[in-house]
Amino acid sequence: MRILMCREATRLMSKRLDTSLSFQERMSLKFHLAMCGACRNCNQQFQLLHGLGGVLEEKVRPASRDTGNNAE
To answer: Looking at the whole model, is its pTM more than 0.85?
Structure first.
């Protein structure tokens, strides 16, 4: 397992929201997060924003479908 710098850890946090990480990436990130409070906070913020984005997308999607149906 390689030691991550914070910049690489944040890149993996972001990547993890869009795709699966390799076993090596997951373990390296997990180890880094165990040692780095700043990155733990950043990870929580990424997860919060990602979750809020999903909620917003669900709220906007039905409204845009309704608008599209009225145009026909």
So the answer is: no
